Amino acid sequence: MDIVSLLRDSGLRATKSRIAVLSFLEQQRVPISISEIAEKLGAVVDPVTVYRIIDAAKGAGIVKEVNLGTGSISYELAPDGHGHHHVVCTSCHKIADVSSCHEELLSRDALKEARGFASITGHSLEFFGLCKSCS
Ligand SMILES: [Zn+2]
Ligand SMILES: [Zn+2]
Ligand SMILES: [Zn+2]
User: Fold this and answer.
1) Which residue ranges make up each domain of the chain?
2) Cα–ligand 3 centroid distance for 15 (angstroms)
3) How far apart are the CA of 24 and the centre of ligand 2, in A?
4) CA pair distance 113, 32, nearest whole angstrom
5) Is 133 helix (H, G, I), strand (E, B) or coil?
6) Ligand 3 centroid distance, CA of 100 (Å)
7) Of 56, 51, 52, 58, which is closest to residue 37 (Cα–Cα)?
8) Ligand 2 center to residue 94 CA distance, Å?
9) What architecture is the 1-82 domain classified under in CATH?
10) Which pLDDT score, from 0 to 100, does residue 42 have?
11) CA-wise closest residue to 78 among 26, 17, 121, 37
12) Which ligand is closest in space to the CA of residue 87?
């Protein structure tokens, strides 16, 4: 993926540290927390900057927050604004990706049910269970 174009297309300046953080995110097979990113990139980008970069990328809709039930929020690159969802093993924390979620249907129902809301702009959905070796 061309991280420089991704940043520019979403209205963010392609600075060295932004490129470093997003390229690192792209290489991860599973979502990762800010402290894990800061730990790995410590020599290149300081933790406060990592936090700001993730926050800006989240605002621009190219990074997604993922709650894996670990107590800290994880992040992953979602260039299309949606990305995918996950199934997490509650015993060994193995993670598998799930692509479909019937987003339009769910959003429409959610909007129908939620009083006082005018629009749905995003969603967060992860599944928890036991993997084959843990069950
Ligand atoms: Zn993922
Ligand atoms: Zn497991
Ligand atoms: Zn979805």
Assistant:
1) 1-82, 84-135
2) 30
3) 26
4) 33
5) coil
6) 6
7) 51
8) 5
9) Orthogonal Bundle (1.10)
10) 87
11) 26
12) 1
**Residue 74 alpha carbon to ligand 2 centre in Å:** 19
Quick: pLDDT tens for 70-113: 888 999 999 887 789 999 999 999 999 998 889 889 999 999 99
The second-level CATH assignment, the architecture, of 84-135 is 2-Layer Sandwich (3.30)
Q: What's the pTM value of the predicted model, to 2 decimals?
A: 0.85
Q: Which residue has the higher pLDDT, 18 or 42?
A: 18
pLDDT above 70 coverage of the chain, percent = 100
Q: Which of 91, 96, 92, 82 is nearest to 31 (CA)?
A: 96
20 Cα: distance to centroid of ligand 3 (angstroms): 27
CA 24 to ligand 1 center in whole angstroms: 14
DSSP letter assigned to residue 70: S
